[in-house]
TrEMBL record:
Membrane-topology annotation of the record: Multi-pass membrane protein
Superkingdom classification of source: Bacteria
Protein name per its UniProtKB record: TRAP transporter, 4TM/12TM fusion protein
Cell location: Cell inner membrane
Domain TRAP C4-dicarboxylate transport system permease DctM subunit: 141-407, 413-639
Keywords annotated in UniProt: Cell inner membrane, Cell membrane, Membrane, Transmembrane, Transmembrane helix, Transport
Gene Ontology CC terms: plasma membrane
Transmembrane segments: 31-51, 63-80, 100-120, 155-178, 198-217, 254-275, 324-345, 366-388, 394-425, 432-451, 471-493, 500-523, 529-549, 556-583, 589-606, 618-638, 644-668, 680-708
Any GO MF annotation of the entry: transmembrane transporter activity
Function: Part of the tripartite ATP-independent periplasmic (TRAP) transport system.
Length: 723
C-alpha cells in the first residue's frame, strides 16, 4: 500500500464533490477562477491574521466573515446541478461564466452582511424598533442566506428555517400547546438580524472564530504530509495481521480523523488505499466499503480537531476546549474498538490473511522520512493544552505547517518547536515582540524556498492553494451555521423549545408507564424508563434529521430542541450535548442517506444500500456508547461523577459488551458460532454494556454457556486426534 499519486488525489476530490453537497463547486474559466481564488485566499488570510493578532469586534468579525462566505457561495456554487458539469459560455448577461443574477446576489449578500457592523454604534437604539431600512436589509440577508444554504448544503435546512419562521408568524393559528401570540415580520427581522440571538449568534461566531481555522489547519497538515504519515504508520502497525487492510483502514481513519474532522473526506482519502487492498485479500466489496466508511465517521468525534460541533459545544456550555477533548477521548476509542472487533472476527471466520511483507512499509523509514510532519499537530496541542485559546493554537499550528512545508531541514523544524515552547514558558507567545519576528522569519523562509528552484516554487504554490481550498471547504458550513441561527432565533423568540421538551417528556412518560405495566414490579423504575424512551426518541430524530442536514446544523437544532428535554430528566448539559452530537454523526452511515457509506460504495463498486446497512452494523458501538455515558457519565472523565472505580467499571462493561455483540454479528468468537450461541451472546451483551452492577452481572451470567461452549470447542480443535 503506497501513498496516493496525483491522479488518485484528483479522483478523491471528485468523489468528495459528488457525495458532499458542501464541495460541489462549479467549473470556472481561468480569469474568473483567479478572481475567486483571490477572494478565497483573502478570506483565509483574514482568519489567519485575526487568530494570531486579535479578533475584531464581535459584530464586525462575524459580519466580514459572513460577507465573504455568502458572496463567495454565489460565485462557486451554481444554482442548479447542471451548472456543476461544465463551464458556462460567457456573454453580456453571464460575465465570467457567472450569471448577472449570481453577481447581484453576491453583492446583496455582502452588503446586507456588512450593514449590521456599519450601524453597530446605533444598534442599541435600533433593536426593538427597526427602521424601514433595517427591515429591508434584514429581509435581503434572510433571502440570500436561505438561497446560499440551499446551494451549498442542500434544501432540507432552508426548508426547516422557512418552516420555523412561518411558525413564528402564524403563532395564533397553531394548535394546542404550540400556540403563541405570533410576531410581525418586522419583529422577526429585528430578532434575527439586529440581535445576537439570531443570524449573528453563537453558531456563526464559532465558525468564524474556531471552525474555519481548524478546517484550514487540516487541509494544510494533509498537504505537508501528515495524513500520509498516519496512513503509513497504520500500515506498519496493522497491515501484517489477519484482514490487515481492514485494520489499516481503522487505525488510519482514526489517525487521519484527528486532522480532517470530515467523514466523507476521511472515507475517500484513506479509502483510496485501503478499499482496493481489502478487496484484494478477500473481503466482499460492500464489506470493504462499509469498514472504511464506518471507521471514517470517527473523524468527527476524534480529538483533537473533531468536527465543527465540538467548538460549538465550547461556546454553548462555556467550557474549555480541553474539557471537550478529554470527554470525547474514551467514546471515540469505543467506536473504533467496536469496528475493529467486528473486522477482526470477520477476518478470522473467513480465514483472511494480512498484507504480504513486501507491501508493508518499514516503520523506521516512515518515521525517518516523515517525522517532521508531526510537528504542526504537536505545536497545536502544546499551545492548546498550555491554556491558550483554540484559535491561537490553530494559528501557530498553521504557521508550523508553513515551516514544515517550506523546509525539510530538521534544524529549522526543531528550532521552531523550541521557540514555541520557550515562548510559552516565558509568557511571550502572545507578545508582538515574539510573533512578529518569528513570522518574519517564516515569510523569509517561504520566499527563499520559492525563488530557490522550480520545485520550491511548486511547493510554496501548493501551500497557497491549500489556503484557497481550505476556505472553499469552510464556506458551506459557514452558511449552514448562519441559517441555523434563524432556527435558534425563532426558538428563543417563541419559546417553542420548552414546549417541544414538554411534549417529548410527556410522551416518553406514557410509553414508560405502558412498559411498567408489562414487566414485573421492581425490574425497572418510572424515571429511568422515561429517560430511556426520551433518549430513544431523541436518537431517532437526530438520525432522521442528519439524513438531510449537515452534522453541525443537526447538532445545533437538537441541542436547542432536545437538550432541554434531557435536562428536565436530570441529564447533565455536557452529557446531553455529546449524546445528540454522536447521533448526528451516525447519520453519515445510516441509510437511506448515508453519505460516507455511499462514497465508500462508489470507490468499491458495491451496492450503496447494502454498504450503508453493513456500515451501520459496524458502527453499532457508536450507537450504544451514548446510552452508556448518559447512564454512566464517568466515561466522559470530566463529569462530577468521575472516580477511577466507576470509570473502569463503565468502560470495562462497554468493552466486554462490544466484544460479545461483535461476536454475535460476525458469527465467530474463538470458533464458528451456532445460531443459539449468536442469539444468546447478542442478548447478553446489552445488559453487560448497561452501566449497572445488577444488569452487568445478569448479562455475564447469560453469556457463560456461550463462553464455555466456545472454550470447549476451541480446546477440541487444538487437541490432535489419534491416527
Amino acid at each position: 500500500m503506497s501513498s496516493p499519486d496525483a491522479h488518485v488525489i484528483i479522483e478523491n476530490r471528485s468523489l468528495e464533490e459528488k457525495f458532499d453537497p458542501e464541495m460541489r463547486f462549479r467549473p470556472l474559466p481561468p480569469a474568473t477562477a483567479w478572481l475567486v481564488a483571490g477572494l478565497l485566499l483573502t478570506l483565509s488570510f483574514f482568519h489567519y491574521y485575526t487568530a494570531g493578532f486579535g479578533l475584531l469586534r464581535e459584530a464586525t468579525h462575524r459580519g466580514i466573515h459572513m460577507a465573504f462566505v455568502l458572496g463567495l457561495i454565489f460565485l462557486v456554487f451554481s444554482a442548479f446541478k447542471s451548472g456543476q458539469e461544465r463551464i458556462a459560455p460567457s456573454s453580456w448577461w453571464r460575465p465570467g461564466s457567472i450569471s448577472l443574477v449570481d453577481w447581484a446576489l453576491a453583492v446583496a449578500a455582502a452588503a446586507s452582511s456588512l450593514y449590521v457592523p456599519w450601524i453597530f454604534n446605533e444598534l442599541a437604539f435600533r433593536v426593538g424598533n427597526p427602521s424601514p431600512t433595517d427591515v429591508v436589509m434584514g429581509t435581503i440577508l434572510i433571502v440570500v442566506l436561505l438561497e446560499a444554504t440551499r446551494r451549498s448544503v442542500g434544501w432540507p435546512l432552508p426548508v426547516i428555517a422557512i418552516g420555523v419562521m412561518l411558525y413564528a408568524y402564524f403563532g395564533p393559528s397553531m394548535p394546542g400547546i404550540l400556540q403563541h401570540p405570533g410576531a410581525s415580520w418586522s419583529n422577526i427581522v429585528n430578532h434575527l438580524y439586529l440581535t445576537s440571538q439570531g443570524i449573528y449568534g453563537i453558531a456563526l461566531g464559532v465558525v468564524a472564530t474556531y471552525v474555519f481555522h481548524y478546517v484550514l489547519f487540516g487541509v494544510l497538515a494533509t498537504r505537508v504530509g501528515l495524513g500520509k504519515l498516519f496512513i503509513d504508520l497504520a500500515t506498519c502497525v496493522a497491515g501484517r495481521f489477519a484482514g490487515g487492510p481492514a485494520k489499516v483502514s481503522i487505525f488510519g481513519s482514526a489517525l487521519f480523523g484527528m486532522i480532517s474532522g470530515s467523514s466523507i473526506a476521511n472515507t475517500v482519502t484513506v479509502g483510496s488505499l485501503t478499499i482496493p487492498a481489502m478487496i484484494r485479500v478477500g473481503y466482499k466489496r460492500h464489506f470493504a466499503a462499509a469498514v472504511e466508511s464506518a471507521a471514517s465517521t470517527g473523524g468527527q468525534i476524534t480529538p483533537p480537531i473533531m468536527g465543527a460541533a465540538a467548538f460549538l459545544m465550547v461556546e454553548f456550555l462555556n467550557v474549555s476546549y480541553r474539557t471537550v477533548i478529554l470527554a470525547a477521548l474514551v467514546p471515540a476509542l469505543m467506536h473504533f474498538f467496536g469496528v475493529f472487533m467486528q473486522v477482526h472476527l470477520e477476518a478470522k471466520r473467513a480465514g483472511l490473511k494480512g498484507l504480504p511483507a513486501e507491501e508493508l512499509p518499514k516503520a523506521a523509514k516512515v518515521l525517518r522520512e516523515g517525522w517532521q510532519t508531526i510537528m504542526p499537530l504537536a505545536v497545536l496541542l502544546i499551545v492548546l493544552f498550555s491554556g491558550f485559546t483554540p484559535y491561537l493554537a490553530a494559528f501557530w499550528g498553521i504557521t508550523a505547517c508553513l515551516v514544515v512545508g517550506a523546509s525539510r531541514v530538521p534544524a529549522i523544524t526543531l528550532g521552531f518547536l523550541a521557540a514555541i515552547v520557550i515562548a510559552i514558558a516565558t509568557g511571550m507567545l502572545t507578545q508582538l515582540t515574539f510573533s512578529v519576528p518569528l513570522l518574519g522569519l517564516v515569510l523569509a523562509l517561504l520566499v527563499y524556498t520559492f525563488v530557490k528552484s522550480e520545485a520550491g516554487k511548486a511547493l510554496v504554490l501548493d501551500l497557497v492553494d491549500a489556503f484557497v481550498v481550505g476556505a472553499k471547504y469552510a464556506i458551506g458550513v459557514g452558511a449552514a451555521a448562519a441559517t441555523v441561527g434563524i432556527i435558534v432565533g425563532i426558538v428563543t423568540l417563541t419559546g417553542v423549545g420548552f414546549k417541544i421538551s414538554f411534549i417529548v417528556t410527556s410522551f416518553a412518560a406514557q410509553l414508560a408507564q405502558i412498559f411498567m405495566d408489562l414487566v414485573p414490579a421492581g425490574l425497572a423504575d418510572m424515571k429511568g424508563m422515561t429517560l430511556f424512551f426520551t433518549l430513544v426518541m431523541t436518537a431517532v430524530v437526530c438520525i432522521l434529521l442528519g439524513c438531510g442536514v449537515p452534522t453541525t446544523a443537526n447538532y445545533i437544532i437538537m441541542v436547542t430542541v432536545a437538550a432541554p428535554a434531557l435536562g428536565l430528566l436530570g441529564v447533565q448539559p455536557l452529557v446531553a450535548h455529546f449524546f445528540v452530537f454522536y447521533y448526528g454523526v451516525l447519520a453519515d452511515i445510516t441509510p437511506p442517506v448515508a453519505l460516507a457509506a455511499y462514497a465508500g460504495a462508489s470507490m468499491a463498486g458495491a451496492d450503496p444500500f447494502k454498504t450503508g446497512n453493513t456500515a451501520f452494523r459496524l458502527g453499532l458501538g457508536k450507537a450504544l456508547v451514548p446510552f452508556v455515558f448518559v447512564y454512566g457519565p464517568a466515561m466522559l472523565i470530566v463529569t462530577p461523577e468521575f472516580t477511577w472505580a466507576s470509570f473502569l467499571f463503565v468502560t470495562a462493561g462497554a468493552v466486554i459488551g462490544i466484544m460479545f455483540l461483535s461476536a454475535a454479528f460476525a458469527g465467530y468468537a474463538l470458533t464458528p458460532m451456532r445460531a443459539w450461541e449468536r442469539w444468546l451472546i447478542g442478548f447478553a451483551s446489552l445488559p453487560i454494556i448497561a452501566p449497572d452492577v445488577q444488569m452487568t452481572l445478569m448479562g455475564l451470567a447469560m453469556a457463560v454457556p456461550v463462553v464455555v461452549s466456545q472454550l470447549l470447542k476451541a480446546r477440541g480443535a487444538m487437541v490432535p486426534r489419534p491416527a
